[in-house]
Amino acid sequence: MPYFCHSCGNEQIFEVKVGVKVGRRDSCPHCGSDLHVCKNCRLYDPAIHNQCREPEAAFIRARDESNFCMHFDFKDSDGIQQDSGVVDAKAKLDALFKKLK
Fold first, then answer.
1. What is the distance between the alpha carbons of residues 13 and 62, in angstroms, rounded to a whole number?
2. CB neighbours of residue 66 within 10 Å
3. Tens of pLDDT, residues 27-52
């Protein structure tokens, strides 16, 4: 199952076979961003109070910085949703380059 960095979107390769354990100090080999962050967690949801689906989770101010949350569970590729603006921009670029060929 592929896992992706919240910052650069590159796939993360983990050596473990059962469950993904990400340490607090682990970082993305592609961009250097922290991996044990709310934005990489399957429980992260910016649309709800405290931005976490775990009601007992402590409030974390910086969602893209390493933290000590015990509820962290690295989200898989199913949890990634691309911004519609990004999708539209990529479609426009593809159309532009097809015209230039």
1. 25
2. 17
3. 999 999 999 999 999 999 999 988 99
